[in-house]
Amino acid sequence: MEKIVKGLKIDPLIFKFPFVEKCNISVCSGECCWYGVYVDLREMENIIQHKEIIKQYMDETQTKDESKWFEPLEEDKDFESGYCAGTEVFNHKCVFLDKKGFCSLQKTAMERGEFKWKYKPLYCVLFPLTIYDGKLTVDDEHINRLHYCSKPKYQVSTVFEAMKEELIFILGEDGYADLKEYSKELLEEKRIEITK
Ligand code: SF4
């Protein structure tokens, strides 16, 4: 039977998919952000509401014209509001990625002493995890087009191990504990094999 934690189906792949120990912007330059991301309508509204503050943390490689920040809205049931929009690509990277490879949305929050993910879209926080059709799984397609975290020589961890903080953020401490138990069960029953 499929495992469900906090309303999300759990793909056992998350426990065995190899990944880097943690993100390293100095090596990868934030390349997972080059293509933009889909954000929930509510996240988009939150960003627009704080646009003047966010602009203070953008550099000359980014556009401060907020009308160029998002693509048109579309319907999508994987988003809480039922609607999402892609962030635009500007200068060959997400409109919110600065020249050093940092997300201006996260930078804004951190520099202001706020919760670091206050403005950051959920799917950015989650990557390399993603939610597809109500299932928490691995965004292997996106990983495969990246030059750093896709390389076996750097993959010393699993997605599950690397993403503890993010998993606690979306599932809570109790949800994370539930996931850990589930991974143990899978290992004991030899339904997954971890090679890293
Ligand atoms: S919003 Fe921030 S974290 Fe998300 S893709 Fe853009 S730069 Fe990267």
Polypeptide structure, described:
This protein has helices at residues 13-16, 25-28, 41-49, 51-55, 104-111, 122-126, 140-144, 159-162, 164-188; strands spanning 4-5, 8-10, 18-19, 38-40, 74-75, 83-86, 89-90, 93-94, 129-132, 135-138, 157-158. It is of the alpha+beta class. The chain folds into two domains: 1-28 and 126-196, no CATH class; 38-120, no CATH class. The strands form four sheets. The chain has a four-stranded mixed β-sheet. The longest helix is centred in the C-terminal third of the chain and has 25 residues, at 164-188. It is globular, with a radius of gyration of 17 Å. Bound molecules: iron/sulfur cluster (SF4). Iron/sulfur cluster (SF4) binds at residues 33, 36-37, 87, 94, 96-97, 103, 105, 120-121, 124.
TL;DR of this structure?
This protein has helices at residues 13-16, 25-28, 41-49, 51-55, 104-111, 122-126, 140-144, 159-162, 164-188, and strands spanning 4-5, 8-10, 18-19, 38-40, 74-75, 83-86, 89-90, 93-94, 129-132, 135-138, 157-158. With 196 residues, the protein is an alpha+beta fold. Iron/sulfur cluster (SF4) binds next to loops.
What percent strand?
A: 15-25%
State the helical fraction.
25-40%
Structurally, the number of domains stands at 2
Low-confidence stretches: none
Look at the helices and sheets and give the structural class: alpha+beta
Shape: globular
Q: What would the average pLDDT be, to the nearest integer? A: 94
